[in-house]
Amino acid sequence: MSLQSSLVPPVTELRAYAPTADLAVSPLSSRRERAHPQAGTAPDNLRTEPGPVRFIIIALAITFLSVFVVLPLVVVFASAFSKGIGAYVAALAEPEAMAAIRLTLLVAAISVSLNLVFGVIAAWAIAKFDFAGKTFLITLIDLPFSVSPVISGLVFVLLFGAQGYFGTWLQAHDIHILFAVPGIALATIFVTFPFVARALIPLMQEQGTQEEEAAISLGASGLQTFFRVTLPNIKWGLLYGVLLCNARAMGEFGAVSVVSGHIRGETNTMPLLVEILYNEYQFVASFAIASLLAMLALITLVVKTVLERRLDEGQEPKD
Amino acid sequence: MVRRILPLVAGLLWASSAFAADVTLLNVSYDPTRELYADFNKAFAAAYQKETGKSIEIKQSHGGSGSQARAVIDGLQADVVTLALAYDIDAIAAKGLTAPDWQKRLPLNASPYTSTIVFLVRKGNPKGIKDWDDLIKPGVNVITPNPKTSGGARWNYLAAWGYAEKKLGSPDKARKFVGDLFKNVPVLDTGARGSTVTFVERGVGDVLLAWENEAFLAQREFGKDKFEIVAPPLSILAEPPIAIVDKVADKKGTQAVAEAYLKYWYTKEGQEIAARNSYRPRDAEIAKEYEKSFAKVELFTIDDVFGGWAKAQKEHFGEGGIFDQIYKN
Amino acid sequence: MSTAVARRSTLPGFGLTMGLTLTWLSIIILLPLAGLFLKTFELSLDQFWGIVTSRRTLNALKISFGLSFLAALVNLVMGTIIVWALVRYRFPGRRLFDAIVDIPFALPTAVAGVALTQLFAQKGWLGAPLAELGIKVAFTPIGIFIAMVFIGIPFVVRTVQPVLLDLDVEIEEAAASLGANRWHTVFRVILPSLIPALLTGFALAFARAVGEYGSVIFIAGNLPNVSEIAPLLIVIRLSEFRYADATAIAVVMLLASFLIIFAVNRLQRWAQTRIPAH
After folding, report:
1. Within 10 A of A305 (CB to CB), how many other CB atoms are there?
2. Residues in A touching C165 (Cβ below 8 Å)
3. B188: nearest CA partner in chain C
4. Which of C141, C119, C115 is nearest to C128 (CA)?
5. Phi and psi (nearest 5°) for B208?
6. Residues of chain B contacting residue C235, judged by C-beta atoms under 8 Å apart
């Protein structure tokens, strides 16, 4: 069974975000335009809703999005700058804030690059070959999406905590996983596990194996084929997966909170620092860090929109 | 993306490694001591450098007392713990991380500073809260954290219970009193700090049950024109204890430094820092000097009323204990 | 899985990539989850049952699942309205609002938590006027519900949007030219073909809300039995040194996630058999 032809985006939450939801159906190029209700022969009142209904629907949509989605974002920036730009900059220049930013970047770099490599490898195995149990395998990859972040942290405490399954051994060898960078990275890798793979699998399935097979039959090696043929085809999808993976990695709170140990200037990531500063009455500083993360979210959205356009264009010649 | 981030990360990390000190200690503490230890660590580092010529960096971790003890049990490499109540360090000792007699190894029950539980009310005290029995009046919203997760909340609970038992004369009546009190609690945060933020910043509730030092701090941060501190005539003597985590300190070779660090609390300088941060000092001289900063409150101890922490913990906060029963009904 | 055989392709690297995939998957996902289950096996069945049916646990689960269900329902209705507006109508700022839908997904949950709390607290921009009306949002179950609605909205929109975009306009045209009125066309022709996507979006929003922690704990009152969500109860049990309780609750939630994923999978298949593929 292939997911390729599905009209409805399959299983995961990511699918809701991945371009794959769009890519699963082709052709894509004219989709946006096709939505225009202008074309057609039937009289207007049969083709679309009456004016007042349309107005109400648009008003509801705009109001809902403004109140529930835009306003919280505005609150973040308004609170961050409530004491002026000086206080804002000072808050970010604090050594503790810098340390949190460094740690967040480091953890994101580790987890994104590992998941990048894994994602490509898994997508190759799953998309380019048929085998029994494929759906089951995909379900396993999806699993972290639906696991509560708290549980994602808890499982590593149970494994690597001093009272956990590997605790004694780790202590004997003086290896620190929990309450140090490795633990934070592991928890982050867990929660971001599916992003890259899930962005690539449907895309690579869609593209089939013909081009690669041709390259192989012309004498190219497996790696050559991947880098010269496959990679150029999937690069935008890959970037897309990396982008979402990165956004989640930098923003993870629940899982990291359980394994961090909250050592100031050492194991506090930016989202954890938001909570800590908030609890220290340093609301401006807290929202300043929060505003950086909100900025990250906005940049992610802009890049995502650009990438989606690229992905749509990338599909065009294939029709 | 990664290619662009990596050099950046490398650069930032390199920049940070310039601060490495000769000795590093990790102090795992509870929520309201952030300011206290920021002050204390600075003073100790200076004193230590003067005496030994070595630089020392003390790292801090803060959180709910129970969560912090849990993290140490799970392997957080704390050289010293400075928690809200003895029970949490007992839990650490039970796992063999520190000696069972830890509380006898330092003077004064290993509690160099004490505190008590007071009320923080809004300006003008609109609900006229003077004493514990005002808290169970209908329409009074009381803010306190969850005794299951917060050390401060356990002191709050025990202070209320102690008052009721002494005033009303029987444990049964005390139980009803505490039950009525918790009926007036609209929010149960996980930590003392969370409760303060709820009361102060989010404007919920009429009275906050708080550590004395926490109440003073909130007043300093937000202004005397907004909040008033009401000290009840009778409250509990809260003794937040400190201890070395032997297993970690021995492994890291920091036992001696850790001991010097904790013993610094018992010097005049240490006691002065406690007093400055609104913790009640033990030293008679410093206490006299700061007499005016603290309200006169009659204090009972946990040993007086509850027969020690282990017993109180089991009866009140253990599984199926009195607190659980209060929330069942 | 060991009997897996590459059938279709003559490409190299199946053994290697599959081997690496399974190894990495085992280390990161399977081993930790196995550890969780193993831990619960230390409990007797009676103990396990006692923990998950204790009043506090049941209430936390009820709050998490119940409010998530309500939030997902609201997301279903509002999501459909938003998708309809974005796909079928043209209005100023449409593309902007289209992009905005993803904010709850891209915004870190802790940031969402402090922002929503600030907004809905008694002194907040929305909290103050609501308080005048006698409605308290922050620190009540309504607050939890609001946070869950916030994080769930993109799931419905992004699942339904491509399907509505792709819906054959000709069918509508046909219905219209046959004289069906607009309501008829919408409710008898369009909505039925959206049902699988709607249900999938609902299930995804529900799954996300059930496990949500960061954005909820700030705005929830965290009162036992009233506004305490199951993930928070896990954290509380951990800090009470009650690992067995924490893992037992975690296992129940994990099983629920399995069930939801399974349901979504079935929905997918249903959708595929209902609508012929291109």
Report:
1. 14
2. 31-32, 34-35
3. C223
4. C119
5. -110, 125
6. 67, 190
pLDDT score recorded for residue A70: 95
Residues in chain A with CB shorter than 8 Å from the CB of C12 are 216, 221-222
* CA distance linking residue B131 with residue B118, whole number of Å: 10
Instruction: State which residue of chain B sits closest to C138, comparing Cα positions.
Output: B202
Element (H, E) at A15: helix A13-17
Tell me the C-alpha to C-alpha distance, in Å, between residue A50 and each of A55, B229, C199: 9, 62, 27
Contacts of B219 (CB under 8 A, 6+ apart): B120, B227, B228, B229
List B242's β-bridge partners, or say none.
B82
Instruction: Give the three-state DSSP class for B254.
Output: coil
Q: Could you tell me if A318 lies within 8 Å of chain C, comparing CB atoms?
A: no
pLDDT category of residue B10 using cuts at 50, 70 and 90: low
Distance CA B83, CA B66 (A): 9
Q: Give CA–CA dist A57/A242, Å, rounded.
A: 35
pLDDT in the model for residue A12? 36
Please, what is the average pLDDT of chain C? 88
CB B68 within 8 A of CB B81: yes
Cα distance between residue C185 and residue B222, in whole Å: 61
The amino acid at residue C236 is I
Residue in C56, C121, C239 nearest the CB of B67: C239
Per-residue pLDDT tens over the stretch C132-176: 999 989 888 999 999 999 999 999 999 999 999 888 778 888 888
List of chain B residues whose C-beta atoms are within 8 Å of the C-beta of residue C236: 146, 148-149, 190
Measure B149 CA to nearest chain C CA, in Å. 6
The pLDDT, as a whole number, for residue A4 is: 30
Contact C79, C156 (CB under 8 A): yes
Residue C204 to residue A8: CA distance in whole angstroms? 13
| Cβ–Cβ gap B9/A160 under 8 Å | no
Counts for chain C of helices (H) and strands (E), in that order: 15, 0
When the pLDDT of each residue in chain A is averaged and rounded to a whole number, the result is 83
Integer angstrom CA distances of residue C228 from A19, B91, C141, C219, C233: 36, 26, 9, 11, 7
Q: Which chains touch B (3 or more CB pairs under 8 A)?
A: A, C
Residue C94 and residue C86 in contact, taking contact as beta carbons nearer than 8 Å: yes
Interface probe with A: pick from C107, C142, C186, C191, most Cβ of A within 10 Å? C107
Whether residue C6 and residue A143 make contact (CB cut-off 8 A), yes or no, is no
Backbone angles phi, psi at A170, to 5 degrees: -65, -40
Instruction: Answer whether A291's CB lies under 8 Å from A76's CB.
Output: yes
Name the token pair of B156.
Answer: 């709050």
Residue A315 · residue A26 · CB < 8 Å: yes
In angstroms, the CA B69 to CA C127 distance is 36
Query: A112: which residues sit within 8 A by CB, 6+ positions away?
Result: A192, A242, A245, A246, A249, B1, B2
DSSP of B230-243: E--SEEE-B---EE
Nearest to A189 among C1, C28, C181 (CB): C28
Residue A277 distance to chain B (closest CA, Å): 11
Alpha carbon distance C108, A72 (integer Å): 12
The predicted pLDDT at position C179 comes to 77
Best of B92, B149, B222, B326 to substitute, by most chain C Cβ atoms within 10 angstroms, is: B149
Which residues of chain B are within 8 Å of residue A243 when distances are taken between CB atoms?
1
Lookup result for tokens 């700022």: C93
User: pLDDT tens digits, residue range A49-61?
Assistant: 788 889 999 999 9
* C33 shares contact with chain B (CB less than 8 Å): no
Q: A126 in contact with C at a CB cutoff of 8 Å?
A: yes
CB of C132 less than 8 A from some CB of B? no
ipTM: 0.88
- Alpha carbons C181 and C176: distance in angstroms, whole number: 7
Residue type, C58: L
